[in-house]
Amino acid sequence: MIKRFFGQGSERTQKTKKSIFLLFFFHMFNMIITLALVPLSIQLLGNVRYGVWVTVSSVIFWLNYLDFGIGNGLRNKVAESFALSDTQKARTYVSTAYFIFLLAALCVIIITLILNLFVNWQYVLNAPLDLSGELKLIMPFAFALFATQVFLKLINSIINADQRPALNGLISLLINGFSIGGLYILFISHNNSFLAFATVSFLMPVIILLVVSVILFKTSYTEIAPSYRCIDLSTSRALFSLGMQFFIIQAAGLVVFATQNLIISQVLGPAQVTVYNVALRYFSLVTLVFGVILTPFWSAYTEAYVKKDFIWIKKMVNKIILL
To answer: Is the dihedral of CA 127, 195, 181, 147 positive or negative?
Structure first.
């Protein structure tokens, strides 16, 4: 259907269609694993502690929005550089972005360690009193791992800029697959520790992203691999100016999508966060499917815009609106 709908078209169109098909394939398995993660997690933690966990994840997920849109800015700038076959410029953008993110990750870790001395996480999350000690250990550890994950996720922006979003789908599948494998080991070993659960959940993405980054920068992306010699902070203005436009959109998304768990936990209690999120998992499948179709077009539009192929852009936009 997708093939007939978008037609035969140019090489760019063919690449986009291929990405959509592969993304559907990977996301289908991702959906199955994600849905399987919920009952396994609830069995490990119970309704209340799982509700606390989802709320913790929501709060930590806010770190995704502290990049001020630089990740998306990098995606567009690298896509422009690829369209112009300017790998040196792409390497400068990549090196500078990694340097900025490294500094940001270190700042987040230091600030979190300081805040942890004063913040009562049990009160903030409306968690049971018996979790107070574990939350004091988990929160700085989880923030540190997630900050590292955000830093390593820059490889996703580069892959998307190269119009290979299906590869990111595969990476996501690997993360989810190893995560559910780690949690299953906890389940069969009867280890329902909140700290062990958090460690597996946050450590797996870091390991997978680190391995993938090393492999790709040693093979496909050798020419644009980050190097301290290529750091040029003057290019950060271009990354920030474009990134801030994305950040405004991200900030709106933060209000809409990342605050509900905290509100529910405070008003109705952690157990109701579990009820809400189980339902949300199923309803979000609809937007996930359409997201699979939209994702490959982002960098394709960027390439077409740089090459002034406005006819292709208008044609694809009209088809997606119709779809």
So the answer is: positive
d(CA 204, CA 52): 20
Reported as a single tens digit per residue, the pLDDT across 73-119 is: 888 888 888 888 899 999 999 999 999 888 888 888 898 889 888 88
Angle ∠(18,22,24) on CA atoms, nearest 5: 120
Dihedral-angle region of residue 227 (phi above 0 means left; psi in -120 to 50 means alpha; beta otherwise): beta
* Intra-chain end-to-end CA distance of the chain, in Å: 11
Q: What is the pLDDT of residue 155?
A: 94
Full-prediction pTM beyond 0.85?
no
- Token pair of 47, please? 């309704």
- For residue 2, the model assigns a pLDDT of 56
Residue numbers in the chain where pLDDT is lower than 50: none
